[in-house]
Amino acid sequence: MAKRHIFFVRHGSTDWNNALRFQGRSDVPLNDEGRAQARRLALRSGGWRGARLLCSPMSRARETADILSASCGCEVVPRDGLLEMGFGDWEGHSMLELEKRDPEAFREWRRSPFERTPPGGESFVEIRSRLLPVLEEASACDEERVVIVSHGGVIRAALAILIGMSLDSTWRVKLSNCSVTAVESGGRGFSLVFLNDCLHLDVAEEILPKIAFTV
């Protein structure tokens, strides 16, 4: 049986990303930088033609997916299970603001973000329950390549579920805007292939079609 590869794409940059503001369920759109990042990834994504393309319905993820779709010809399929984790009362506030406003709660959250839920926010158990059906769909579909465009918190949760990373360790993983992380199926479940690939953001555009992903 051929191995299945799942590519996790974090959405392109937004103004709130640049200001280090918690976005969560706030529907913040891509900025010009984020659209440019998505277009550069699209130039590299020729090998994804024929893949299944799932995305969060939030505008920053959906627009990233639409730009990729125009290049690789895949239909964009939104899934609510890929929504970003909810940060409750913290959404719209910067990390610096929260460090000053609620230092103890923020410090506890920084120690283990999946185990310390912000006030009014979403727990890992809640994220897992809505994300699992999407991961099961990706694992069972006919296509050998699945591209999932989502958010940093959800991609970290997916890594915890699929490859058994500890909840604490997933938050020590850097996931840049418009980065790509891949896992592949095998006899022991899924394994990590590569993490936070951002090469398409750092090289000349004319060579991007020549450095397609190797899996």
Describe the model.
The protein is α/β, with parallel strands linked by helices. The protein has one domain: 3-Layer(aba) Sandwich (Rossmann fold), CATH 3.40.50. 37% of the residues lie in helices and 16% in strands. It has helices at 15-18, 32-44, 59-72, 95-101, 103-111, 124-140, 152-163, 167-170, and strands at residues 5-10, 52-55, 76-78, 145-150, 180-186, 189-197. The protein has a six-stranded mixed β-sheet, sandwiched between helices. A hairpin with a 2-residue loop joins strand 5 (180-186) and strand 6.
Keywords for this structure?
Rossmann fold; 215 residues; alpha/beta; 37% helix
What is the compact description of this entry?
By secondary structure, the protein is an alpha/beta fold. About 35% of the residues lie in helices and about 15% in strands.
Can you lay out the helices and strands and say which pair or pack?
Elements: E1 5-10, H1 15-18, H2 32-44, E2 52-55, H3 59-72, E3 76-78, H4 95-101, H5 103-111, H6 124-140, E4 145-150, H7 152-163, H8 167-170, E5 180-186, E6 189-197
Parallel strand pairs: 1-4, 2-3, 2-4
Antiparallel strand pairs: 1-5, 5-6
